[in-house]
Amino acid sequence: MSASRLASGGSDIDRARPLTFSFDGRRVEGFAGDTIASALLASGQAVVCRSFKYHRPRGIWGSGVEEPNALVDIEGAGGRVPNARATTVPASDGIVVKSVNASPTALADRNAMLDRFARFLPAAFYYKTFMWPDWHLFEPRIRAMAGLGIVDHDWKPREAADQINHHCDVLVVGAGPAGLAAAAGAAAAGHSVVLVDDWTHPGGSLRHRAGKVDGMEGTAWAEATVARLKSDGQIVLMETTAFGLYDHNLVALNQRHRDSRPDTLWRVRPRRIVLATGAIERPVPLANNDLPGILSADAALAYLRRHGVLVGRQIVVATNNDSAYEPASALAAAGTSVTVVDCRRDAGAQAKAGIRILPGRTIAAARGRNAVQGVLLDDGTALAADCVLVSGGWTPTVHLFSQAKGKLAWSDQLAAFVPGESVEGIGVAGAAAGTVSLSETLASGAAALGPFGSSSTPAPRSTGAEATLGVVSLWPKPKAKGRVWIDYQSDVTAKDVELAARENFVSVEHLKRYTTLGMATDQGKTSNLNGLALLADVTGRAIAEVGTTTYRPPFTPVPFACLAGARRGSMHPPVRRLPLEANHRAAGGVFQEYGGWLRPAYYGGGEAGAAIREEARRARQSVALFDGSTLGKIEVIGPRAPEFVDFIYYNTMSTLKPGYCRYGFMLSENGVVFDDGVLVRLDEHRFIVSCSSSHVAAVHARLEEWRQDRFGRDAVYIHNATAQYATLTVSGPNARGLVEALDLGAALDEASLPHMAVAAGRFAGDEVRITRVSFTGDRSYEISVRADRAEALWMRMQQEGRAFDAVLLGLESLMILRAEKGYIVIGRDTDGNTMPHDLGVAGPRTKRTGEFVGRRSLFTEAANGANRNQLVGLAVREGEAPLATGAHGVEKSGGRLRSIGFVTSSYRSPTLGRPVALALIERGAARHGETIDVQHLGVVRQATIVAPCAFDPEGKRLHA
Amino acid sequence: MQLFPCPFCGPREESEFHYGGEAGNLRPDGTDVTAERWAGYLHMRDNPKGPTREIWMHLTCGEFFAMSRDSVSHKVSGSSALGETEHGA
């Protein structure tokens, strides 16, 4: 192949602005407006990468998104991009381009010898061969030898990608003749329009195919139309790909930028979508059709007219249709020798000046090693050539239409699938709908607007030459000689398709997965139809009967950075923060995320374990301060509120007196404990549901559901006030002394504020709520205050606390304190089978007569089972280490080990000087005193089943 | 991304909603409900292909409502607020 740049011409390039970049270490020159591919062609670079599996040399095939071969890794201002299509990425000064799957370079690849073993490596070779002893032994080496570009694992976007939501009347995808006609029509009718195109300039095929519109040259008309749309205030996005069409006509766009900004994601909700996405030229089946120097005929014309690049000197064109004659004539006019091998017998009628036509002939094989050197015709004639152009007909780009669940219809006349029945809100226009002539194309653009078209403004008219197609089928044939590539990027040949059919993979979806046909980064844009036509032939079916595989987004690869936008790092997912976070940090708090909240795990910079144990030890000595602001505070108010909480809770709650609180469970309808916590009754019709910190949203949703579905909106009102209040807890033997020192104006004596009672107080003019509930087992006061005034109270607590040697508790030491008491954490000490009677709370189940959530499930066969896992404590022998959380209790049964439950929480208690553990053990409640085997990672230890509460079992300290 | 019509907020994107089950799955009260009936309420779903009536929650406003939707075409034909005690039946 001896491609070169012409001295003049090229509508897309600016010869006054030269640029250079490197390719595989070589310097490549080009101009502004070049793609990497056009610059590589102009510099005579035939081999640009190595194929996925066989490491075959590959060159540039196409001129746009369809490109199956020319994948490159690019290092530029925005970082490294793997597997970029050289045909779509604009060349820019100073970028470093590297061929994929080649080492050291595409031309001198050291794994090129793999191709010599190709006949031993058919489809599914790896699955069949590397079964024994274990695929995983072979996988790393096979993966290293096969593959494409290399991901830079350290790459991070410098900034978050913009994401834009947009609504418009009409979205037009594709700024070719059909799309421009549609956009102009919609704008004329007064609608807001968004026009997108993946190329740098508008016009589509008008930029390289002859055509006149309303008396103007095609390119000039396209640019004038876009200029008018822009001056009308319509949005025109170039270098933007509509990559996905989702439910209810949401269209996702990927907009690329020339600077180092990450790509922008647009989510557009148009009222009408016009798909004017064009068509993609198909390869012609011939042996060795993947040699560098074999290109799409349309691409050759595009390189000539857009970039002033001549793809060869001695050119053979293989075709089955009329569209190849414009490239042939144009290249001949540019001074090359052109021979057209046309499979149609009547092709002589196409005779044009300067080109030789061989009608009724096909090419059997291409010759050459690293570049095409000639072809062999079906009659044995050999022709020399440095470039072979192929045009096997056109495949309408129906991807977005199919993503919208549009059905395709087979057209014999076009030898292609075209959009069938229309989809609501979507019009398909131009070559995507199967039009050929410019007249038809322009008319279809206007018509695709449906009710959004203009009745007064006439559609643009074609005033020049009209294209014809005249296609006949030229599909790959079974048992062809040599290797005929179907899918270049996945390295799938016709023989692989035949093999799959022979092995009964006759569904097109199975064919795809078995051979990987169409599964590469190009998603088979050039290969799918040839593949399924061959499958149809081999299995004796019609192509329409075989059908296509499912089209899924994205149409072209989209960077994750574009899809992620701002949702990365600390924004993915965002954590909830305490109102007093800054104070905790100043006090040396080490933060961790707990159920979506960022909370202090412990305080102080020392070793975590020691710091945590020290906090737990000191908390039992005098007094501890703890920030419990994350605890749920959901207010339930209204005339039927008492009835409502009775229904929601497992425990009877309506008997609670105002000013008191009660601990209880909420169940799921399947009887499993869903949440636990304290319910506060402020007055007759006002309760506060205090639920687990990480469960607030779920509990709130559940309360709303029953309120709206069972009780009525005006019977109960629910307000989630969790974030409005901070809850600061004082706990320990000296808790009362400290709270008294705070001077909250509430009587704290045992008669006025006993355990499980609530009192109102004031701090610095604000009302505070003082609740005597305990999660430590010591006398505790939970003080709830307006979140925005919490800092002053917290500072005061610490100040007064000095006299009491008060300690700050992180969440980890609180976990030790509650485990010493046998207090459970739902979801940790319970699982998806745990019912309240498994936790020793059987009373309401047997005694309650009213209805409550989950009630019926407590009386099923499973709920009454004798072998249920029940909450117990586990004690180990003096001096032993704590049991591992998650360790299983085991027993021998019929010669095999069987799990009888597991350890749910396990800590070393600094106060007791020994380990404590909670566990769910089969029939555990009746087995106190029994010693069982506990196994973890193959090590078996003994533990004795005890009551869950290991510290102060009489509960004296609650009142001390 | 589907657009769901919240009866209170109008059309919003599906990511703002939480599925609440099939409409008309009425809760049988009491402990004398047969095990079969209760299991039906808890677990048995019609999972219809085509027109469906479903309960959805709009997370941003907290309201539950019934919506008619086609499980194949994803076409939404309407939505209505829950009544006093009906379960969208």
TrEMBL record, chain A:
Name the UniProt record assigns to this protein: Sarcosine oxidase subunit alpha family protein
Top-rank taxon: Bacteria
Matches recorded under Gene3D superfamilies: 2Fe-2S iron-sulphur cluster binding domain, sarcosine oxidase, alpha subunit, N-terminal domain (3.10.20.440), BFD-like [2Fe-2S]-binding domain (1.10.10.1100), FAD/NAD(P)-binding domain (3.50.50.60), Probable tRNA modification gtpase trme, domain 1 (3.30.1360.120)
Every SoxA A3 domain range: 481-565
Alphabetized InterPro entries for the sequence: 2Fe-2S-bd_N, BFD-like_2Fe2S-bd_dom_sf, FAD/NAD-bd_sf, FAD/NAD-binding_dom, GcvT/YgfZ/DmdA, GcvT/YgfZ_C, GcvT_C, GCVT_N
Similarity remark: Belongs to the GcvT family.
Keyword line: Oxidoreductase
TrEMBL record, chain B:
Tree of life domain: Bacteria
Protein's recorded name: Sarcosine oxidase subunit delta
Species assigned in the record: Mesorhizobium album
